[in-house]
Amino acid sequence: MNEETSEEALAKGRLRAEDRGGRIGEQYLDPEEHAEVLALQDPEENWKEEPRDHRGRHIMLAFAIGTVLASIAFLVFFFSLKPKPAIRNHSTNTAPPPSFVEKASPIEIERAIEDCVSGFMNATTNEERCRFLMGGDSLLASLDEYYGRPTEFPPKDYGKIYQSNQAAFGGVPIHSIFALEKEGTSGWVFNILPTQSEMKIDWGSSVGYGDRSWEDFTTSKPQESITMRVYLARATAESQVADPRKFGFCKIYTRGNDESFPGFFLRKSKIASSLKYIIPRGGRQPVKVKLRWNTDGSAIEILELVHNFWIDFERYQQEFQKGSEIKN
Q: For labelling, which of 55, 129, 148, 326 has a CA lying 20 to 30 Å from the CA of 98?
């Protein structure tokens, strides 16, 4: 069909024009009555917009929706392929066996503690002593090394239990015993823990065992990492020891000695986060840590927290549940 010329459209009284936005507008005027108006009329005024073809837009929208649905279907399929966790049958799980203190009467517990302490003190060799220790023969080398130090010697000739205190840490019952030799001139500390069938000594925490004696550690001032059992207390910043902007500070003690040594540790470190919560205000906290002296021998750097307290209660629980005994 031939397109209508502008002259023919004008003759029919219809003016068509396209505005700057691409819209088509129509106005219907009588060419004889409104010839002057038709000649001056702005074609972008009073538009009656014609509908445009939106088929392309609908196709794009449909394509986008289809893409989203396909992605969701793929994700559902992908995760359905992942192995599902096995469902535990709790009815077959067995609880850890009860400890000796849960089964025995108070009199039986007291008797078992005394048998353990007296057996250790009356033993004449380290092999015999291991029979009464948590960890048994695995500690023989440590006993040989420790009691071979010039300042250390094993207890002997059991006399009596002078004092007994009971506590619990993390659900683990512990009896702290102070026993005297027969002559009554020397006393010894024993930390006693239950196994499934008896009571045994946690030897490392009882003697405060470390890789070096405290005297040797503070005299030789080693700059390599040494594992020690010590007490830590809070301290204010000491600029003469280390940069307070980079390091935190504490005081380091050993058992039975009020003399402290300056200690420091990196502020932005795992050890700093741990010490922040475990060291009490105005008190001392027993810990097992890795230490070394700084280069000029003026202070001790705390490198790592092996475990809180002198007893590794977490490891004790793990070993106990497996039916084995903790090693120092």
A: 129
How far is residue 262's CA from residue 251's CA, in Å, rounded to a whole number? 5
Please report, as a single letter, which amino acid is at residue 226. I
For 13, the token pair is 């009284």
Per-residue pLDDT tens digits for 161-174: 999 999 887 778 89
Architecture of the domain whose range is 218-309: Beta Barrel (2.40)
DSSP 65-93: HHHHHHHHHHHHHHHHHSPPPPPP-GGG-
Quick count: other Cβ atoms within 10 Å of Cβ 51? 6
Q: Which two tokens stand for residue 78?
A: 């992908």
Task: Kindly state the tokens that stand for 220.
Answer: 């030789």
CATH class (in words) of the domain with range 100-207: alpha beta
pTM attached to this predicted model = 0.66
Could you give the residue range(s) of every CATH 3.10.450 domain in the chain? 100-207
The answer to whether the CB of 120 falls within 8 A of the CB of 129 is: yes
Query: How many Cβ atoms from other residues are within 10 Å of residue 289's Cβ?
Result: 26
Give the pLDDT confidence of 22-42 residue by residue, as tens digits. 444 444 445 555 444 444 444
